[in-house]
């Protein structure tokens, strides 16, 4: 199968020993730079220290660290021991973190308390390490739509495969390498972790300890960043920065948006900021069932689409009986792709529904057009059924986010005696000292949505987003009696 990830690290250390390939922007804005030689040596020494703590081939290494050089050292060290690196969210309440760690069942778990210990391994001889390959390249923790912790292990062993570091934009045109990749997402999220595959392919990383819109733009200008992956929330916060139109974004060759549907107004804003041919939008999931994508110029011709299947991805839209639906009819999105290597679940979360011929669904709803372009509506678990009508929260959120006094919004379905469920909007005002009124928000929604989709109730509060800018809708509903 070619080089293992561990072998690839050594090859790059020999070939590019003196070039700075990893830059870290700390919480206070301070920066560190590391060469491949330093990454190789530091991770080998850490691997030796982890082996002394009992970590070996096939074991799982829990990594509960912020984006940092130590995070990268730990992942590389796991690969060098044939262990499975499993990033673990560090921004969870203690009770939830304890439950997740029980599912991960790591032989060794590294947290912020271990940073000083990791730093003590920086010096000394580089140990001889076994030539082994992890049976699972990595794991990603997810709560999915059920709220139950689950760990998704890639069934692909830790071999270097250029397919997984090929820029998505290369599906449309050549992309110059090496890229300079700005890492905005926490590396416990798939969007953050997979940038390490670009590093193994010879790209350079600029690693942000935490997403901050202003610092992200500073980093783009200072380091001539050529690409990054971001959620719509991240892109919204960057686009809302004062003076963003005057900033130098010319180094950006292309960017990728994923993780959630892109509000149309925000897609058009980024098409104007960098050019539609430099914006790609994708739909996929941690289980790597397949991927769909399209470029900004395609999106302008098909607003709201998340593209067609790439890399051999096949798409079916099925009804509740498992029958295929025609173009334009919404149903459950099922994907299948021979390009991906499957996954293994840990934990008690329910497995994904699967058809007899191997199509699977992550619980999302959508429809296809006549040309095979997919339109994502929402997660089935988030669907609001009010008065017998289906309301997709993402559509309501896209309508409300354009209000100049709204910084963020999450729409939920809450129990209602008259309607079964009512559409409820949780709004974070742009200016907390001067929020819009509930009547103003409702009137704005009425001007943009069918009457049954308009929120019946509105509340104003700060929205609790994770470091990956995601929200736990289940927890938000439960806190409001849902």
TrEMBL record:
Keywords from the UniProt entry: Ligase
UniProt key word RNA-binding: no
Gene Ontology MF, one: acid-thiol ligase activity
Key word RNA-binding present: no
Domain AMP-binding enzyme C-terminal: 395-468
Gene3D superfamilies: 3.30.300.30, N-terminal domain of ligase-like
Domain AMP-dependent synthetase/ligase span(s) in chain numbering: 23-111, 142-339
Entry-linked InterPro entries: AMP-bd_C, AMP-bd_C_sf, AMP-dep_synth/lig_dom, ANL_N_sf, ATP-dep_AMP-bd_enzyme
Pfam families named in the record: AMP-binding, AMP-binding_C
Protein name, per record: Bile acid-coenzyme A ligase
Species of the source: Actinocorallia herbida
